[in-house]
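in:
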């Protein structure tokens, strides 16, 4: 079901990349935060009547606590005179009312088509794979600690938010120069490059962006049901398979927590254990942070169990965390995971940062 609401824009609260957050007043008199994507609904002025989707907001679900602007019926963006003249024919968010057409990096109208037509190899490029979107800045902090000039591409899969513009993290990292490009794959859209799937997204990262390293994760808004298999992060295992199949060097970023109230996510999350232990099928590296105390012992034991049960497919690498706290505190975007900041759950961010540190070491040989 969809919970529809009408409202009136009363204020522009903030904007980033291709998204604008508004304050919208409902007929009840209540005011809600509402997000509008400029490519979809344009930039709206105060007093504009809007149609909202408030389903997740009213249920208290989802990342950000926002209503979504579906349309401004009396202020529609101008139509394109001849849509057949617009380059690109990849349709994303397909067969939904908000489906959009984009130019795929490898399709016939793309200037990169010839480069990607027979591309089939990542030439050993490290590919850091993470479950949560919130791991991205921490992975980059680990990568950049010793190699700040490294060229990094972010490949966003479609397990969470579909529009990359939802992510303030990606917008901030791009603005700071920490990311060379974003590549949106599957049903996700809005990146610097668009690709059909994670395979072509990784090939574009290597052959078009010229990335030294690619980082793959779903967009904001991980979905989980508290069951063994019911979570969107299984896509992490599939990304490992894609990277290995294409001749890349998969690096598994572990989802770790010392503060999550749910036991299944304490130490190494069952999401990582399942995605890397059961979904991925190709050789991959598993960097494990050397954490102090009981937590460090638990994480190392879980990681050994994960790798030992893989019949040699997963290789465990213990990585020191010395110096990473300073690197993490210098990220140009806030560190937040599942509502917790760095000081609330340091292990979570250190677990991602050591994956970045390990990938940087691979490049140095």
């Amino acid at each position: 079901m969809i919970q529809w609401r009408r409202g009136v824009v009363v204020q522009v609260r903030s904007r980033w990349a291709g998204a604008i957050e508004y304050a919208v007043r409902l007929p009840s008199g209540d005011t809600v935060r509402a997000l509008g994507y400029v490519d979809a609904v344009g930039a709206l002025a105060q007093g504009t009547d809007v149609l909202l989707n408030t389903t997740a907001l009213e249920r208290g679900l989802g990342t950000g606590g926002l209503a979504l602007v579906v349309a401004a019926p009396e202020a529609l963006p101008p139509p394109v005179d001849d849509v057949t003249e617009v380059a690109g024919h990849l349709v994303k968010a397909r067969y939904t009312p908000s489906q959009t057409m984009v130019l795929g990096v490898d399709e016939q109208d793309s200037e990169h088509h010839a480069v990607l037509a027979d591309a089939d190899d990542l030439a050993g490029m490290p590919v850091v794979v993470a479950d949560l979107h919130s791991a991205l800045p921490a992975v980059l902090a680990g990568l950049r600690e010793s190699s700040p000039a490294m060229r990094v591409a972010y490949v966003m899969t479609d397990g969470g938010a579909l529009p990359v513009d939802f992510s303030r993290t990606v917008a901030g990292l791009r603005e700071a120069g920490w990311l060379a490009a974003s590549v949106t794959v599957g049903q996700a859209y809005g990146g610097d490059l668009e690709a059909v799937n994670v395979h072509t997204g990784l090939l574009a990262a290597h052959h078009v962006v010229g990335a030294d390293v690619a980082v793959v994760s779903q967009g904001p808004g991980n979905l989980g049901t508290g069951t063994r298999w019911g979570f969107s992060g299984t896509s992490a295992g599939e990304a490992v398979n894609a990277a290995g199949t294409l001749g890349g060097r998969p690096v598994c970023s572990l989802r770790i927590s010392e503060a999550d109230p749910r036991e299944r996510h304490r130490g190494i999350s069952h999401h990582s254990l399942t995605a890397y232990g059961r979904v991925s099928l190709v050789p991959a590296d598993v960097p494990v942070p050397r954490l102090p105390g009981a937590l460090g012992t638990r994480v190392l034991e879980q990681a050994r169990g994960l790798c030992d049960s893989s019949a040699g497919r997963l290789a465990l690498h213990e990585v020191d965390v010395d110096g990473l706290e300073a690197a993490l505190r210098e990220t140009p975007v806030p560190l937040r995971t599942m509502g917790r900041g760095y000081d609330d759950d340091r292990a979570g961010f250190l677990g991602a940062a050591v994956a970045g540190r390990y990938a940087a070491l691979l490049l140095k040989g």
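note: The chain has two domains: 4-71, 113-364.
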